[in-house]
Design goal:
- With 304 residues, this protein is of the alpha/beta class.
- 32% of the residues lie in helices and 27% in strands.
- The protein is built from ten helices and 16 strands.
- β2 (18-21), α1 and β3 form a beta-alpha-beta unit.
Length: 304
């Protein structure tokens, strides 16, 4: 797959593509449906396929807010490559792109494509002035609109997935995503408190990712291509009076240091709320209970 970065003043450098358009935060089941339609059209017409997305959230850029994503840009690129796209176009978000009128956007980036595949709620251009109706009017023979995809009569979308994660409903979030919610990051130095408790942890740099509900989770961790069960805390460690949210994982089956390693944390199940304990020994007892809960889950999984 060829990756091409585009600025607001550029033009799409490849003509005749079946081009899939969107921000694609989460690359969830509804997005996968768009991908399937695009690849099917490419195969049936003999055209190359492309995905066009943004380097970051345009809305967050306009509001000058930080955006915590379900999938960072590098995740999107990796998934697009795995899915089978020929090209991945990344529109670099800045004031020029955010201010581009829909007419100019479509002339520069869309008009030379064979087909344009979009979700029913796709918008583009300054103040979201371009939408599905705009595309169908300007490119009636090219525009392919994919209808809303639902799960239990509710829209599958990034907002619903984030709401599920914030409420600890990991099973629902994972079903809507079509895969286990995963955070990728480097292991960075922490306070070393886990080791003193008998539960050494890897402190993960989660910058740019959306964090699930504060609490303790059963997770899987991928290290050097191998997957281990793990117990992960998302929170501030209130027993020790912290006020910074960290992502810390205790890995079953590994005793060595993991500093500076790139790892992937996949969320399996919410176990409990984060609790502040009056003494360290009370925390240790709770960690032992959490460990047993995870081991029981592992044991029941092996019986399947």
């Amino acid at each position: 797959m060829m990756i091409i970065h585009l600025k607001a003043t550029d033009r799409l450098p490849v003509a005749g593509l079946c081009l899939c358009l969107g921000f694609f935060d989460g690359m969830h089941l509804a997005h996968r449906r768009l991908f399937e339609v695009t690849l099917d059209l490419g195969r049936s017409s003999g055209a190359k396929t492309g995905i066009m997305t943004f380097s970051s959230s345009i809305l967050a850029h306009i509001k000058k807010q930080k955006y915590d994503a379900l999938t960072r840009l590098e995740d999107k690129i990796n998934i697009a490559k795995t899915v089978g796209f020929d090209y991945c176009f990344i529109l670099e978000v800045d004031d020029d792109l955010a201010g581009l009128p829909a007419e100019v956007f479509s002339d520069r980036f869309l008009q030379d494509s064979h087909k344009l595949i979009v979700g029913y709620d796709y918008t583009f251009g300054n103040n979201a002035s371009g939408d599905v109706d705009f595309l169908k009017k300007k490119f009636p023979s090219k525009t392919v609109v994919v209808d809303e995809m639902q799960y239990y009569r509710k829209k599958i979308g990034s907002r619903r997935i984030k709401e599920a994660l914030l409420s600890g409903r990991i099973g629902l979030a994972n079903r809507l995503l079509g895969y286990k919610y995963t955070i990728r990051g480097r292991v960075i130095p922490g306070k070393g408190r886990g080791k003193s408790l008998g539960y050494p942890t890897a402190n993960i740099d989660y910058d740019g990712y959306f964090l699930p509900k504060i609490g303790v989770y059963h997770t899987l961790i991928r290290i050097h291509g191998l997957i281990y069960d793990s117990m992960t805390n998302v929170g501030c460690n209130p027993t020790f009076g912290n006020d910074i949210i960290t992502l810390e994982t205790h890995v079953f089956g590994i005793t060595g240091q993991l500093y500076d390693e790139e790892v992937e944390i996949s969320f399996e199940r919410f176990l409990r709320e984060e609790i502040g304990f009056p003494a360290k020994d009370k925390l240790i007892l709770q960690l032992q209970k959490d460990e047993q809960t995870v081991k029981d889950i592992i044991k029941s999984r092996r019986k399947l």
